[in-house]
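Quick one, probably user error.
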């Protein structure tokens, strides 16, 4: 029987966050500063160690110049593809 691979929300969020951050040319430190968050928090999100609040997601999206709905859609698509 073949094992079904499942991508967790944390994993998808980590990948999409990092991809969008790098696309904007931002370091974890710069994104954290712009969002008024600690740099380690961005690192923890990208390593699947934390779950952001909705408020944090909105701050991150604003500073990555991406609509929150588009960010969430990217996460959903990644989860559905796996």
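Nope, works fine. Designed sequence:
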């Amino acid at each position: 029987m073949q094992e079904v691979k499942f991508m967790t929300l944390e994993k998808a969020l980590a990948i999409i966050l990092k991809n969008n951050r790098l696309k904007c040319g931002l370091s974890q430190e710069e994104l954290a500063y712009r969002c008024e968050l600690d740099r380690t928090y961005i690192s923890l999100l990208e390593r699947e160690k934390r779950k952001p609040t909705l408020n944090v997601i909105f701050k991150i999206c604003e500073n990555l110049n991406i609509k929150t709905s588009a960010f969430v859609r990217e996460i959903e698509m990644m989860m559905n593809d796996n």
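The chain is about 65% helix and 0% strand.
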